[in-house]
Design goal:
The complex is a heterodimer of chains A (about 475) and B (about 110). Chain A is mainly alpha-helical. Chain A is about 60% helix and about 0% strand. Chain A contains 19 helices and 2 strands. In chain A, strands 1-2 form a two-stranded antiparallel sheet. In chain A, α5 packs across α10. Chain B has about 110 residues and is an all-beta fold. Helices cover about 0% and strands about 30% of the residues of chain B. Classes of the chains: A mainly alpha (about 475), B mainly beta (about 110). Chains A and B meet through α7, α9, α11 and α15 of A and β1, β3 and β5 of B.
Chain lengths: ~475, ~110
Amino acid sequence: MSPLRRAQHWLEERTGALTAWRHVADEPVHGGPRWAYVLGSVLLFLAAAQLLSGVALAFEYAPTTSAAWESLARVMDPGQSPWGRVVRGLHHHGASLMVIVLVAHVVQVALFGAHRRPREANWLTGMALGLVVLALGFTGYLLPWDQTAFYATRVGINIVRSTPVVGAPIAELLQGGPILGNLTLTRFYVLHVVLLPGALLLLVVVHLVLFRRHGVTARASGATPARAEPFWPRQALRDVLAMLAACALLLLAAWLLPVELGEKADPSRPFDARPEWYFLWLFQLLRWFEPPWELVGSLVIPGLVGLYFALQPWLDRRGPGEPRSRRPAFLGLLCALGGMALLTVQVVVGDALRAEAEPGGEEAAPVAPAPISPVEAGMIYGERCTECHRIDGSPEDPDARDFRSPEFKRMARNDFQALVRAVQEGGDIMPAFEGELTPAQIHGVLTQVVLQFPELREAPGDAPTDAGPPDGGGP
Amino acid sequence: VTARDGWTERTDVQTVWVLRPQEDAIQVLTAICPHLGCSVQWKAARGAFACPCHDSEFAPDGARRHGPARRGMDPLPVRITHGEVQVRWVEFVAGAAERRTTDGSPVDGQGTA
C-alpha cells in the first residue's frame, strides 16, 4: 500500500471521511449535469463568504452608539489598512448578490417544478432561508450607525410596532429601551452575528439533507426517461466554475463600487431615509395606502405575497410537470416578482426626478453661500465658540467681544460681511477660522447669533433669515 | 434632550418646527413624522410640511392633509420664559391614530404659548 493510500485508510477508518466524500461525489444528477443547477451551490458559497467577511468585520467592530460608527470609520480608513474598505465592500455587496442569486434560485426551482410533490418541505425550508437572509440584511443595515442606518431602522421598528397585538412587544424587544440607541445596537448585533447565522446554518443543513433525499428535478421533456450521472466530476466542475465567477464578481464589486459610510446617526438632522434596495418595493407600498388602509400596505400585501410564495407547491399541482401545463402557476410567480421590480423602479425613478427638481434635497431659502441648518450652527457654536463666548452672547473670556454690545449690533445691522471676515481672519484673542470652518458654516453661526436679538431680526442687514412657514420660523 | 440609553445617558439635540399662528402666539411641532418616524420637512413650493419617506403631507399648522400618516404632526408643550422659547421634549408612538407619548406621560397644553 502506498503511503497516500495508507493515510486515506487511516482517515477513513477513524472518521469515515472517504465514505462521506463518495456520498457527495456520487450524488445522482438526474438528466445529467446542467448549468441551471449551480445556483444553490453559489448561494452556499456566498453564505460562506459572508461568514468570513462578517467575522473579519466583527473583529474590528463595537456595537455601541459611541463606538459603532467610529469603529467602522477606522476599518474604512485607508491610513489604517487598505483592505478594510474591500472587506466592507465584500460584506455589503455580498448581501446584495445573495439576494439576487436567491431570486434566481427560486425562479429556477419553480420553472423546473422542483418544488412539487414530494419536495414541498424543501421549498418551505428554502422560503425560511430567504426570510433569514432578508432579516440579516435588515439587522445588518443598522450596525454602521450612520444616518441611513438610524432612520431606516426607526421606520422598520415602527412598522413592526404597528402590527396589531404582537407588534408592540416585539418592537420593545428589538429596540430595548425608550430610544433607538445602545440596546438596539446590541440586540441587532446579536441577531445579526449569532441568532440569524445560527438559524441560517441549521436551515441550510435541513435544506441540503432534504435535497439529497429527493435529488435534483430534471425538467421533464416528453417521454425520455431521466438518466442519472454522478455529481462528480461534470456537475461539480460547473458548480466550482460558477462559484469562482461569483467570487470574481464580488471582488470586482468590492473593488470598483466603494461602500460609503454616511454621516454618524443624529436624530436632530433630517434625512431622507431609504431602505436597502431589496426592501424598496415594501417601502413604496407604504405610500399607496391611506388610513384606515395603511396596514394593507405594510402587512397584508407583504404577508399575502409571502404566503403566495410559500404555497407554490400546492398551487402548482396540475399536470404531469411539463413546463407547458404548468405555465399559469409559473407566470403567476413571475408576475409577483415583476410587480416587486416595478415598485422598486418607481422609487428609484421617483427619487431621481425629485433630486432633479429639488437640487440639494431641501427647499431652503436660496441664500449664498448654501446655508447650514440652525441645529448645525448651534452645534458649531457649542463646540468652537463657547470657550470664549457664552450662549447668550456675553463674554466667557473677559477679553472676548460682547455680542450684546451696541458696537456688535451696529456691525451686524450695517455690515454683516465684516463679521464674517472678522471670524475668518481672527483678532486679538479670536482665532482665525478661515479653513477651519466653511464660509457657509461661519455665515450660519453668525446668523443664529444675530437672530437671538429681536431688534436685529427686524433689520437683519444682509444676514439671511430662516426659511420657514409663512407664519413662522425655522427648525 | 437627555434620555436613558442602556448603561448610559445620551444627550441629543432634537429638531422642532416653531410656528407663529398669531403675532403673539407660538406653536411647536416635533419634526418626527407621526407615520413611521422620518423627519418632516417644510416644502415652501407646496406650502406644506411633507415627509420625504412615505409622502405624508401636513398643513402649515401641522394638520394631516393626506398620505399614510394617521394623525397630524405632534405638538410639543411650550412656554415662554424671559423671552426664551422653552420646549418640553416628548416622543410619540408612531403609526397610531391617537396621540400617545412613548413614556406614557400626559401631554399638557395644546402646544401653544
